[in-house]
Amino acid sequence: MSTGADIPPELFEKLLDYITSKRWAGGLEADRRELSSCALVCRFWSKRCQAKIFEDIALRSREDVEQLISFLENPLSRIWEYIDGLDLRQKGTTLPWIHLIPLQLLGLTKSTTFFSTLNIEGHPMGPGSVRPFRSIHSLLPRSHPSFSRSIYHVTLSDIHFRSFLDLAHVVGEMHSLTGLRCHKLSWPDPLQIRSSPRTAPLLHDVHMHHCADSWAAVWLLSGPRRASTGREQSKFYLGRDEQSLVAVLARSIQPTTALADGTCETRVCLDEAARK
Hints:
With 276 residues, the protein is α/β, with parallel strands linked by helices.
């Protein structure tokens, strides 16, 4: 009778890669359930599946963070060896908790870098807050400002900014950011940009939908880049006149592509050649 140990390691890894092929695509929960079922086959499968089960961790609340900390504090636990990515999802209806990651969690792991995604829905400062959201560091403790460098993808939803430039400032602060998704973002006045805001050095994919000025994605991606530290930055940017021309074209097209609620969807991506 064959056992899990009889499967060639290369084939087993291929199976695990197939099951977990939807990295950061919203399939973490389904993937983990499938892997947990595989882990019940035998001890060999259990051992091999653990690394994949805990490779990507989705955290939605302070309670999730505390539970993960309790696992890591167990002297018999080896979870810290497997964690590679954190998927952080904070809603404005709850008290802020993102700051707990660098304060309490990272000290319990052996790794100093993670592939992190950040999903913020509603006002980042919590329910009832009227503080303007202009800096990603307002969510993080001052003693760990470098944590923002581990954030590669950000989704912002249902947030009212004091101005578009506040949004641009938040984006520009994240030096490792490569992808940005915006949903139902707003600012009080029609978009009037007199100077090009500096954007994240590695940003190459901006998707805005159900935003009143979705064409503003052009401004977030085509402006001058902030200086990068440690990683090669994208060389792509447009001059002031070129940027204005592209923005005018995008703005003129927007009414013809309006959604049912009168908003529009715009996605701007740079291919590999344009980034170099």
